[in-house]
Amino acid sequence: MAGIRNMASIGIFIPSMIVSLLIVFPGSSFATSSLIPESAPHYRDDATFPERKIPQELIEFAGAPEEQEPELGPELGDDEIPEFGKIIDIEDNGYPMFSVTVSFPERNFEASFSLNIEAIDLQIDQLHPMLENYATLFYVSESRNDLFELQYEGQSLFGEYALQIDPEWKQMAGILSGADAATAGDLPDEILVVDEKGNEVHFDFFITPEMVAKNGRSVIAYYQPRYVNEITHLQASHD
After folding, report:
1. Residue 61 maps to a domain
2. Which 3 state secondary structure label does DSSP give 34?
């Protein structure tokens, strides 16, 4: 019986000694690494440890809901920007071009993206089922010039589609180049206007026979620059 009482005393003494060590030496490796898992949360007294500031770029890129992980797929290119959001609208702009509107509920805003479905690894029967679902997308943002009017000696080359000149539009007087033949495909061609100092303004445009007739001549282009977000990768999210 005496032996049993001694063992019981030892059993009580050893845990008590460990607790005492943790109290006396709270910063020791024994206290932190042996008994407390590295994954355990660390609590602090805000009066002792000042609040840390979260970088603004991390707040702005608050991406997807926590329960869903973006599926990035291919490696991100140097100029590509990754996003994760809910596709709320898909508009056919004339195959193969689409306008895709994406909602980012966590940041309370929407954004429109341009999609050339033939330029990415995606079939049209895979695109429309993405509507009202979350998806991962890569995109590049670049400045492009919208050509609104093109005139030769004061006459529009757009015929019945000519627009009234807006004083807010930019203009460039120079030699029309790149309009060697009328556009035959579904995508616009690139033309440019070069002024006498060598400055160039490029446009993606469907070339008409009227423009071909004035290729190499002096024209005035009326245009407005804008930023275009062009999708380079689009992948449905799998719950």
Report:
1. no
2. helix
For residue range 14-55, what is the model confidence (pLDDT) as tens digits? 444 444 444 444 444 444 333 334 443 333 333 333 443 434
Compute the Cα dihedral for 49, 51, 57, 58 and give only its sign. positive
- Please indicate, yes or no, if residue 93 is contained in any of the structural domains: no
pTM of the model: 0.60
Q: Considering its fold, how many domains does the chain have in total?
A: 2
The verdict on residue 25 lying in a domain is: yes
39 backbone dihedrals φ, ψ, rounded to 5°: -85, -5
- 90-126 tens-digit pLDDT: 999 988 999 999 999 999 999 999 999 999 988 999 9
Q: How far apart are CA 182 and CA 187, in angstroms?
A: 12
Calculate ∠ Cα 5-7-8, nearest 5°.
Answer: 65
> What separation in angstroms does the CA of 138 have from each of 75, 92, 196, 199, 230?
10, 20, 39, 32, 8
Question: Which range marks the domain in which residue 210 is found?
Answer: 144-226
Whether 56 is covered by a domain: the verdict is no
Select from 31, 50, 69 the last residue of a domain.
50
Beta strand segments in the chain, E: 81-92, 97-104, 109-116, 134-152, 155-156, 170-177, 189-194, 200-205, 218-236
For β-strands 189-194 and 170-177, DSSP reports them as antiparallel
